[in-house]
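Deliverable D2.4 — example input (structure tokens):
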């Protein structure tokens, strides 16, 4: 396959940035998208030019590092697929492909296609820890968990923190990410002691980081590589409403 790549190049956070065109030839349809970028960077390095900076790590669809907007779609045209799992057979010979970084004020560009997602770390840190009694571990089945709750918690816990939801949202909201991190604990017995303080603290961190508000457009779920549903945000909203009601009513422990 022969392709034209229009790639966002930006030397640093203060550079205005621009789209630059490159040609790549003889790309195997079985190559992954990141392998194709590796070929381009080998070509640029050989020519004495600066290679394109892009994030990657596991290349197995687990870590969420491969954050690219491809032809206007976060992670590319395939549903439930990370960029590293995307293969070139989903494109046509001779096609022009636009490649850009995540676009969100809370995700400043570091260089080229690399963005700073430290804001996600701050949201997770705001969630704090889970209280646990010291001593011997309880028997695994001592606290029954309804299967529906266990399945929903596992579904939310599948979030890999890639940020595609933010990149796709017209408001630059990280509500799907935050909801996943909140509800994976709020549905389980172990997450109950800090359940309501956690949701308030994490949403405060979300807003302080500069993410936009959720208006339920659903673009986040359309691009989520792990298929986390919009109902996850509904669970977060319900917990937040309960938390604020408990606080205004003076319920003990509601502001823990």
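Example output (designed residues):
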């Amino acid at each position: 396959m022969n392709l034209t790549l229009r790639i966002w190049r930006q030397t640093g956070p203060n550079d205005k940035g621009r789209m630059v065109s490159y040609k790549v030839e003889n790309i195997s349809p079985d190559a992954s998208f990141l392998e194709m970028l590796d070929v381009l960077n080998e070509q640029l390095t050989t020519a004495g030019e600066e290679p394109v900076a892009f994030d990657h790590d596991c290349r197995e669809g687990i870590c969420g590092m491969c954050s690219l907007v491809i032809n206007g779609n976060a992670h590319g045209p395939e549903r439930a697929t990370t960029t590293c799992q995307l293969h070139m057979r989903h494109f046509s010979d001779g096609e022009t492909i636009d490649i850009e970084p995540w676009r969100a004020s809370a995700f400043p560009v570091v260089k080229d296609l690399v963005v700073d997602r430290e804001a996600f770390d701050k949201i997770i840190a705001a969630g704090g820890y889970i209280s646990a009694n010291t001593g011997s571990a309880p028997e695994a089945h001592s606290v029954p968990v309804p299967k529906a709750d266990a399945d929903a918690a596992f579904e939310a816990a599948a979030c890999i923190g890639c940020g595609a939801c933010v990149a796709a949202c017209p408001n630059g909201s990280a509500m799907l990410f935050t909801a996943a991190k909140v509800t994976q604990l709020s549905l389980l017995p172990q997450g109950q002691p800090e359940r309501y303080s956690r949701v308030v603290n994490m949403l405060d961190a979300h807003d302080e980081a500069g993410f936009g508000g959720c208006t339920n457009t659903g673009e986040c779920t359309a691009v989520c590589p792990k298929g986390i549903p919009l109902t996850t945000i509904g669970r977060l909203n319900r917990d937040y409403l309960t938390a604020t009601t408990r606080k205004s009513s003076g319920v003990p422990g509601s502001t823990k």
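Helices lie at 33-46, 118-126, 147-157, 164-168, 175-186, 195-208, 219-223, 231-248.
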